[in-house]
């Protein structure tokens, strides 16, 4: 708790940045109704955001290694402030989609730099600083949908304006508190993240993350529709989901990897998650059952997020910033595919079909690990880490930077 003010400023900003991912979930039905949009169009609010975030992740390490962390953070925040305000002011679904795409660029620049900044600016054990960051990340994923639900109950534009105000506060905090001499960055080669995918272990884990994220974002982008709740009700459900995710990512995953091999934990959790997605499909007409499934899925996703990123961290000898840029870029692109595919399947078939797609994609991720396990044998020989160390390694790769 005894950290410089700059660390608290970056941690607060990180929480707000991650709130933006789930902010629109509770207001998707309202946007669909009030703007006369289709579910496929509203799904693009996620896709435009995630596509740009994923593509930008390949280049943020190149940018920050040349202009420095502080400038990268400030530019990212500025883009988020302007684009979130623009999304609220836009009167068309096409305009919101465009501003969400710009928002994704700002978020990529910010979240890819925030973690390394917290580490470099913090006092004492780096693991303690990462636990603080991981807490901010989890709180953002849990609170974002709740804020979206509360403000969305007023008007669908309110969550966008609220984010703009909060990120303006974050910008001011960083401008005032993050001062002092900057550490000279070490330049990163422009094409390094692309060349890194030639490494078999990294390529396998990037593909696993791609198919896993399809299931993740089917749950996150589509579940608001079959729930048939108000914006506030949807926000509360997603808060329960995010809280479960945060708890198991920090505590559950390290406990499991002290007992089982990492690849065993990954395969087992992916199988359970695939089964959970099948239950979503089977119980699609029962909102109460869907609420329970959301909490269960959150617990499973938290384990996956941490263990998956630990494995990526140990999978290669590549520089962490390079490996994480490649992995995170592919992972976000997987998330971008899911929302429009889920919406299109629901229109063409039934509301249950998107979850079947998600279950199949997650199962494919488990199969990839099982088939190419030989490329990952070295990560299972690694000694089990303490909770703080596990969080340090996992959070570092989760946000796309070392």
TrEMBL record:
Alphabetized UniProt keyword annotations: Membrane, Transmembrane, Transmembrane helix
Principal place of residence: membrane
Cell location: Cell membrane
Membrane topology per record: Multi-pass membrane protein
Membrane-traversing stretches: 7-31, 43-63, 72-91, 97-119, 131-154, 160-180, 201-225, 231-253, 265-284, 290-308, 329-348, 354-372
Pfam families assigned: MFS_1
Span of domain Major facilitator superfamily (MFS) profile: 6-377
InterPro entries: MFS, MFS_dom, MFS_trans_sf, Tet-R_TetA/multi-R_MdtG-like, YfmO-like
Protein name as annotated: MFS transporter
Organism this protein belongs to: Paeniglutamicibacter antarcticus
């Amino acid at each position: 708790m005894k950290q410089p003010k700059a660390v608290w400023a970056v941690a607060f900003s990180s929480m707000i940045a991650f709130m933006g991912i789930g902010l629109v979930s509770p207001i998707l039905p309202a946007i669909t109704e009030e703007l006369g949009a289709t579910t496929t169009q509203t799904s693009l609010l996620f896709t435009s955001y995630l596509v740009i975030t994923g593509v930008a992740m390949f280049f943020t390490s190149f940018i920050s290694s040349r202009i420095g962390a502080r400038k990268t953070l400030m530019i990212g925040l500025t883009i988020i402030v302007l684009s979130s305000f623009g999304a609220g002011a836009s009167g068309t679904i096409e305009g919101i989609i465009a501003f969400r795409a710009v928002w994704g660029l700002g978020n990529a620049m910010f979240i890819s730099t925030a973690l390394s900044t917290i580490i470099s600016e913090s006092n004492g054990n780096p693991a303690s600083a990462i636990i603080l960051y991981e807490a901010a990340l989890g709180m953002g994923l849990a609170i974002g949908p709740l804020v979206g639900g509360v403000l969305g109950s007023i008007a669908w534009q309110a969550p966008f304006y609220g984010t703009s105000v909060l990120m303006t506060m974050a910008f001011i905090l960083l401008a005032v508190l993050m001062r002092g001499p900057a550490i000279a960055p070490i330049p990163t080669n422009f094409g390094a993240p692309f060349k890194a995918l030639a490494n078999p272990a990294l390529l396998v884990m990037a593909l696993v993350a791609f198919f896993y994220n399809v299931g993740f974002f089917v749950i996150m982008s589509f579940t608001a529709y079959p729930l048939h709740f108000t914006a506030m009700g949807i926000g509360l459900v997603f808060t329960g989901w995010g809280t479960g995710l945060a708890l198991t990512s920090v505590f559950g995953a390290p406990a499991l990897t002290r007992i089982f091999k990492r690849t065993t934990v990954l395969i087992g959790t992916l199988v359970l998650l695939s089964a959970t997605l099948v239950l979503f499909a089977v119980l699609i007409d029962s909102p109460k059952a869907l609420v329970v499934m959301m909490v269960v899925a959150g617990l499973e996703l938290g384990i996956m997020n941490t263990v998956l990123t630990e494995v990526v961290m140990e999978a290669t000898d590549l520089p962490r910033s390079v490996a994480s840029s490649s992995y995170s870029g592919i992972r976000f692109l997987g998330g971008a595919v899911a929302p429009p595919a889920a919406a299109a399947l629901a229109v063409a078939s039934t509301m249950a079909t998107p979850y079947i797609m998600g279950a199949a994609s997650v199962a494919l991720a488990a199969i990839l690990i099982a088939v190419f396990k030989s490329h990952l044998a070295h990560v299972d020989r690694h000694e089990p880490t303490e909770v703080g160390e596990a969080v340090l390694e996992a959070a570092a790769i989760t946000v796309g930077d070392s």
